[in-house]
Every structure is written in structure tokens, then in C-alpha cells.
Write a structure and sequence with these properties.
Elements: H1 3-31, H2 40-48, H3 51-73, H4 76-82, H5 85-98, H6 104-121
Helix pairs in contact: 1-3, 1-5
Length: 123
Amino acid sequence: MNPKLMVWVSVLLSAVAQIFLKHGLNQVKSSRAGAAPASLLSLILGVAGQVWIWLWAACFAVATGLWLLGVQLLDLSYAFPLLSIGYILVNLLSMIFFRERVDGMRWVAVCIISGGVLLIASS
């Protein structure tokens, strides 16, 4: 696989992994609604039993592997700034899947980040 593609897929998988993590933690929280405050052990067991948490771990492991392979073949000065595309993806995915409101200031920041990513990606 092309090293640039490895890095881009790594960034995409990392963003998706964050959505899986948030969804899994929301599931743990909703399953405990109205229950007594959780002990650390019951929280760990609740998290360990969530398929979404396991999907997060799998995506994150694959993303990390692709990152390691890609970075050894690319300039770090190219690859590292591409991580910031994750901010954009997580904002968009949060809006879609969790109906989170992203205000104007955040979008200004996302546009600034996007501009920098485009400059680096085209170099």
C-alpha cells in the first residue's frame, strides 16, 4: 500500500474509532441510568462488555499500525500535520451520529485547519 494512503487511512480510522468510543461510553452510561454510582470495577466491566469499545480498540490498533508503516516511509513534516484532519472528521461525524451542535467559532477553526492540511497535502 502507498505510504500516503496508509497515513490517510490511519487518520480516517482514528476519527471513526473516536465515534465508536463515544457511542460505547454512551451505551455504558445509559445502561447504568438510575443505578447507584458505579464502582471502578463495575465501570471496567461495563466498558469491557461493550462491542463499540472493542470496535474502537480494533480501529485504533489498525490505525496505529498503518501510521507506523506510513511514517517510516514519509517525511514526518508531511505526515504529522495530516493528523489534524481528524479534528474535521470528528466534528462532522459528531454532528451526524450524535447530533452535536458545532458553533461558528469551531467551524472557523476547522476551516483554518483544513487550509493548512490542504497546503501540506499538496506539497
